[in-house]
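Notes from hallway chat w/ T.B., transcribed later so I don't forget. T.B. wanted the structure written out for a chain they're using in a teaching module, and asked if we could keep both sequence and structure tokens in one place. Agreed to drop them here.
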Amino acid sequence: MNPLPHKTTADQRIELGLRQNAAQFTLLVVVNALVGGMLGQERTVLPLLGERVFGIRAYTAGLSFILVFGVAKAATNYFAGTWSDRFGRKPVLVAGWLVAVPVPLLLIWAPSWSWVIVANVLLGISQGLTWSTTVVMKIDLVGPARRGLAMGLNEAAGYGAVAVTALATGYLAESYGLRPAPFLLGIAFAALGLGLSTLAVRETREYARLEAATHVARADGRHDHLHSELTNREVFTQTSLREPALSSACQAGLVNNLNDGLAWGLFPILFAAAGLSVGKIGLLAALYPAVWGVGQLVTGALSDRWGRKWMIAAGMWLQAIALGLIAYVDTFAIWAVAAVLLGAGTAMVYPTLLAAIGDVAHPAWRARAVGTYRLWRDGGFAVGALLAGIVADALGIRAAIWTVAALTAISGLIVALRMYETHHRPATTAQEKATNG
């Protein structure tokens, strides 16, 4: 059977499926890699910059750049979903890149820590607009059958670029100093991302409209109450609180980024206190997102076969074990093993949570549900920065890591008890045949 056709306003036929939209999907993977690179320029260098250049000693103050980043990104995620439904995906993506352009320049020229804070507000806004939109656009293109694989590819590109950039900036900082060399990469990423998004990326909102028009209710009756006509308030309430799978995903996403904020802000300081060189700190800072990024190529596709729920719960528990190991030991080799485990656990969780949101949310309000989920998920950066900073100031860095490890284990338990399996695979339907590209 031929894929489902649909005519856009420009009288062009569109089809759902990964194979049918391979060129545009690949372009969006590249764009999201550049989005990840903008984040990766800070992972190794910025905590050290705060301590060594600006003399930031209190952990809470040092983590302030992550706190404002998390608040800005979380809020922007929500509006990105609403705006992409109202104005289209591409304008939101381009706007995000425009906001990103000044970020590396501010980090290079910053005469005080307040400039760094402003740069991270802009980075958070930019990441909320660009990353959220690339997620929604890929979900639009592929249809329901290979959603997990699509999210795995998206997140692998983004966090693989975070890892490569964190490693590169570590070596640049060791060879040429903390500024300006590491942030020159950010200037290149912003220029490329803005150019590709403006000139080559196409609008995908019509693909979501096609899927909505051909949407087939689940045979088991799940989601029947989640009809297509929901207000913004109803979408927020269902996603955040009422719908068991959606709300379980939101809390797991928040806790996942809570421990990522901890890793971003405190791990480099912990490793430096143990006497590691900037190059080795950069290697450890890169190892975790590298495994996270590459692992999602496998875990996203596996969740299409095995289901979402237990992949998420097991990933949270593996992260908790890894964090406990980092808090317990003080040698480079064991820290490297723990970083691999932390990356593997995060890889199990990250694309699977997004795929679960896509499973449950109706195509007509899916972009808003993704925005709401990402509001809670990236709010974890702010919660993690505040919680980790307060505990570290009071009891030390290792106590902060133990605290976050416990919260991560509890989050996995909530998923196990409250979430149902969202990925329903009945006998192959005509729609699935049509969309399975």
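Follow-up for T.B.: Residues 45 and 214 are 48 Å apart (CA to CA). Might be a good example for the class.
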